[in-house]
TrEMBL record, chain A:
Subunit annotation: Homodimer.
Chain's role: May play a role in vesicular transport from endoplasmic reticulum to Golgi.
KW Nucleotidyltransferase (keyword) present: no
One GO location term (cellular component): Golgi apparatus
Primary location class: endoplasmic reticulum
Protein name per its UniProtKB record: Trafficking protein particle complex subunit
Provenance organism: Carya illinoinensis (Pecan)
Family named by the database record: Belongs to the TRAPP small subunits family. BET3 subfamily.
Subcellular localization, as worded in the UniProt entry: Endoplasmic reticulum; Golgi apparatus, cis-Golgi network
From TrEMBL, chain B:
Broad class of where this protein is predominantly found: endoplasmic reticulum
Assembly with partners or alone: Part of the multisubunit transport protein particle (TRAPP) complex.
Protein name per Swiss-Prot or TrEMBL: Trafficking protein particle complex subunit
Keyword terms: Endoplasmic reticulum, ER-Golgi transport, Golgi apparatus, Transport
PANTHER family: TRAFFICKING PROTEIN PARTICLE COMPLEX SUBUNIT (PTHR23249), TRAFFICKING PROTEIN PARTICLE COMPLEX SUBUNIT 4 (PTHR23249:SF15)
Native species: Carya illinoinensis
Alphabetized InterPro entries for the sequence: TRAPPC
UniProt xrefs under SMART domains: Sybindin
Biological process according to GO: endoplasmic reticulum to Golgi vesicle-mediated transport
Cellular location(s): Endoplasmic reticulum; Golgi apparatus, cis-Golgi network
Any one Gene Ontology cellular component term annotated for this protein: TRAPP complex
Family per similarity comment: Belongs to the TRAPP small subunits family.
Keyword Repressor in record: no
């Protein structure tokens, strides 16, 4: 059986069952509010959101691989492009862009102009340290860990904090090279 | 006509998380199936190292006198393999179907613990349907 061609984010997004965007935004908002009530500390909430995202990411990655038919990426640059163009499109319906590559090619920024999680959201003064969309950083970290990449994902810019876009810095810390050696490793 | 003898699913560390028997000849008890699973996991890993082809992703097909073994490994390291009658066709597409069932009924089940043995009824039901459909399709040819 010949390998299937990789599908574009748009094609996949159009073919999956979709849910009402308002329901999605409200559900996520309810989760964040409940976490704030339960945990009270903004730092704790950030951690919990990241952990939740991690648990989502480790399961989501197989779904992503199956639906998109991507083959193994040859280097981290390709990985970041695939996450931004196919991953974000497929799951959130938004296209992200990749930029700010460092010299090694192990650290980049993924920039989101549009973010459905934060529709209608404003952060009050009491929650100034909160990374409202921290679940997204966990998702990326969890997903990449399942394909043997240990990464650190942090927020550089956050529109809810007054910046002009959402920017995630994705840094590749280590590849566990046993099964999927990248050419760079040799 | 039992084209498929058995199905194994192995997690990324080589542990057997699912085993289903469909034929009579090669029926195994739990210990033997665990042994086969870890054996296959190791052989698969060794084959990747031994391969003269760069970027080899491991054994996909093993043909023997009395059976064929078709293996699919996802990029996350989970392996799905079926032991079938020699010459059975369309096993790769069946493995893809099983992979998709795994993604839906196992991974999306929030109560399933990752890397642990699969105990998901919905997965079993849909898997049986898929195998049945495949069997019908094969015998119809």
């Amino acid at each position: 059986m010949a390998p299937l061609a990789p599908r574009s984010g748009d094609a996949i997004f159009a073919s999956v069952e979709r849910v009402n965007a308002e329901l999605f935004t409200l559900t996520y908002g309810a989760i964040v509010r409940q976490l704030l009530t339960d945990l009270e500390e903004v730092e704790e909430v950030n951690k919990q959101l990241d952990q939740m995202g991690y648990n989502i990411g480790i399961r989501l990655v197989d779904e992503f691989l199956a639906k998109s038919n991507v083959s193994r990426c040859t280097d981290f640059k390709e990985t970041a492009e695939v996450i931004a163009k196919v991953g974000f499109k497929m799951f959130l319906g938004v296209t992200a862009s990749v930029s700010n590559w460092d010299a090694d090619g192990t650290c980049c920024s993924i920039i989101l102009e549009d973010n459905p999680l934060v529709d209608f959201v404003e952060l009050p003064d009491t929650c100034q340290g909160l990374y409202y969309c921290n679940v997204l950083s966990g998702v990326i970290r969890g997903a990449l860990e399942m394909v043997s990449m240990k990464t650190e994902v942090t927020w550089v810019r956050d529109m809810l904090r007054g910046d002009d876009a959402f920017e995630l810095q994705v840094k590749l810390l280590k590849q566990v090279p046993e099964e999927y050696p990248y050419k760079d490793d040799e | 006509m039992a084209a498929i003898y058995s199905l194994y699913i192995i997690n990324k560390s080589g542990g057997l998380i699912f085993y289903k028997d469909y034929g009579s000849a090669g029926r195994m008890d739990t210990n033997d199936s665990l042994r086969v699973a870890s054996l296959w996991h190791s052989m698969h890993a060794i084959s990747q190292q031994l391969s003269p082809v760069v970027g080899c992703s491991g054994i996909e097909l093993l043909e023997a006198d009395t059976f064929d073994l078709h293996c699919f490994q996802s990029l996350t390291g989970t392996k799905f393999f079926v032991v079938s009658e020699p010459g059975t066709q369309q096993m790769e597409s069946l493995l893809k179907v099983i992979y998709e069932l795994y993604i839906d009924y196992v991974l999306k089940n929030p109560f399933y613990e990752m890397e642990m043995p699969i105990r998901c009824e919905l997965f079993d039901i849909h898997l049986t349907q898929a195998i049945q459909k495949d069997r019908v399709a094969l015998s119809g040819r």
